[in-house]
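Hypothesis: this fold can be encoded by more than one sequence.
Test: take the structure tokens below, design a sequence, compare later.
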């Protein structure tokens, strides 16, 4: 990891530089934790209720995912203020009323994983009670939450296989695979991720 390069990009007021740093930090490993305070400061300075530029939107998305991955790689410790701050930021983003903002936070919950147990509790709550939809009405926060819950704990996710969230996610899987079968069957494709679920519960 090029510490000086990341520090320089994050110190810049240029949103494109900040976005680049947030994206790259997703794969920077635990040593990148030194950059988290500045990354979170940047996010705290973005008004989530405003109309965001493309770069601001993706800064929040990738910051949630990167910070979750970094803390997960270290091992979450509820006694460490930085770890608690990361969870707080991810949870705040995931709970935002605008689903386009919230998706990054919901993904970030899965990147952070468990512990803390609150990540799973939030995802289960979203699966069971969330009504947020994107402007098209086709995509829901709860379907994404189910997908992320399954990434963290498959056995727990199976308990909610009869939920609307699961049915919506499976509909997404079928739609994505139908649109691009080759990609769906690739090592990083949706069948690699969700094929076990289709086998476990069958067609719904």
């Amino acid at each position: 990891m090029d510490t000086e390069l990341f520090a320089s990009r994050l110190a810049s007021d240029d949103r494109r530089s900040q976005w680049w740093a947030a994206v790259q930090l997703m794969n920077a490993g635990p040593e990148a934790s030194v950059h988290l305070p500045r990354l979170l400061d940047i996010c705290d300075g973005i008004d989530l209720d405003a109309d965001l530029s493309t770069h601001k939107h993706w800064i929040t998305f990738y910051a949630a995912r990167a910070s979750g991955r970094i803390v997960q790689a270290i091992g979450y410790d509820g006694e460490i203020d930085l770890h608690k701050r990361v969870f707080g930021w991810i949870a705040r983003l995931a709970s935002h009323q605008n689903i386009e903002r919230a998706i990054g936070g919901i993904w970030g919950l899965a990147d952070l994983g468990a512990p803390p147990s609150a990540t799973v509790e939030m995802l289960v709550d979203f699966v069971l009670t969330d009504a947020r939809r994107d402007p098209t009405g086709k995509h829901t926060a709860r379907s994404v939450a189910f997908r992320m819950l399954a990434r963290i704990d498959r056995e727990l996710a199976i308990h909610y296989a009869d939920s609307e969230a699961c049915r919506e996610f499976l509909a997404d899987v079928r739609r994505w695979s139908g649109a691009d079968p080759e990609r769906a069957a690739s090592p990083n494709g949706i069948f690699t991720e969700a094929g076990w679920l289709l086998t476990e519960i069958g067609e719904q």
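Residues 1-113 form one domain. The chain has two domains: 1-113, 116-204.
Hypothesis status: open.
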